[in-house]
Amino acid sequence: MEITDRDRREIRSVIERQIQAFQRDDAVSAFAFASLEIQTQFGTAEQFMQMVKTEYPAVYRPRSAVFEYVTLIQGIPTQTVLLLSPNGTPFRAVYMMEKYSDGSWRIDGCYLVSIESKLL
């Protein structure tokens, strides 16, 4: 699979819009950006939102988000985003993306990796 510039723009837009939905506490919109597999796993937008609130506070209420790069990891398109959590802890979010037959993109999972920060 080749990732085009258009794909990169659309992937970023999907993630940005989901983060914006979280910030508005709009569970239905945030859930709509999740893959069908994720939607099936959680069943309802409310259950999905509750999981994000408790397990992913850096995604739910980031102080900032800096988009890095889109790459393929084991054939899966991924977008990395630097997030600053509500308490100021930096994380790298790795979003796994899925492209549907209609050309749309959805988020098929997100892993947070802590970033060691050292002040000199």
The CATH topology annotation reads as Nuclear Transport Factor 2, Chain: A
Averaged pLDDT, please? Answer: 94
Please state the structural category.
alpha+beta
CA-based shape: globular
The beta-strand count equals: 4
Structure description:
By secondary structure, the chain is α+β, with helices and mostly antiparallel strands. The protein has one domain: Nuclear Transport Factor 2, Chain: A, CATH 3.10.450.50. It has helices spanning 5-23, 27-32, 36-42, 45-55, 57-60, and strands at 64-73, 76-84, 90-99, 105-114. The chain starts with a helix and ends in a 6-residue tail after the last strand.
Task: Give a nutshell description of this structure.
The protein is an alpha+beta fold and 120 residues long. It has helices at residues 5-23, 27-32, 36-42, 45-55, 57-60, and strands at 64-73, 76-84, 90-99, 105-114. It has a 4-stranded antiparallel beta sheet with strand order 1-2-3-4.
Write the layout of secondary structure elements.
Blueprint: H1 5-23, H2 27-32, H3 36-42, H4 45-55, H5 57-60, E1 64-73, E2 76-84, E3 90-99, E4 105-114
Antiparallel strand pairs: 1-2, 2-3, 3-4
List keywords for this structure.
four-stranded antiparallel sheet, 5 helices, alpha+beta, Nuclear Transport Factor 2, Chain: A, DUF4864 domain-containing protein, 120 residues, DUF4864, globular
